[in-house]
Amino acid sequence: xxxxxxxxxxxxxxxxxxxxxxxxxxxxxxxxxxxxxxxxxxxxxxxxxxxxxxxxxxxxxxxxxxxxxxxxxxxxxxxxxxxxxxxxxxxxxxxxxxxxxxxxxxxxxxxxxxxxxxxxxxxxxxxxxxxxxxxxxxxxxxxxxxxxxxxxxxxxxxxxxxxxxxxxxxxxxxxxxxxxxxxxxxxxxxxxxxxxxxxxxxxxxxxxxxxxxxxxxxxxxxxxxxxxxxxxxxxxxxxxxxxxxxxxxxxxxxxxxxxxxxxxxxxxxxxxxxxxxx
Length: 278
What we know:
five-stranded mixed sheet, elongated
């Protein structure tokens, strides 16, 4: 695996380089991965947060590769992935391509795409091509980008070393399951995630994530009774294998599981909490 060194352009595949932002944390792991992709010119995938040093690292990387940055695309508009686009566009004149911005109070409202991307669109990255795959789940506007040789830029759909938070209302567990299955058996050879190192066995990662999420859903249903129960109590039993300081974050994914169970007719919400459908 390629090393994770902030600010350094690290090759990860054909015409693909990673530049790690200096924003490590509980939700970002080592930090946000920005990627440079292209043959004759460069497309920046997920420019990251607003950070002068990271901007300079991206510009320096492009200069070292002797290729101009002509496009900026984002997998989604969470604030650790897209806000850096404004300064990068100002510095390079690049155009922005990507998704709409959901109105849930959790998004980068500065993001504005010159061109909205949709399922099946092909992006020309200076002679190299990316296929757009819509992968809602982590958030409703999430996209992944697939190269011709099977490298998938996954954003926060799949990350290395951890699971992602699914936060309603724009996050959907039902959509997440469907988007994971959508990526199976597509000839993906490697994944370049938004956080962590490259994922070298994509099919195993997809199968493992689906199994993990299904096991968690089964545990939610097992711990539901016909008596309504609030999230703060339910999270203690459903996520008893997770440190308590993470239970606040886990409540988001727990709610997403409960909503999916309700969609499947297995759970209901009342004024006093959630309960198993009778």
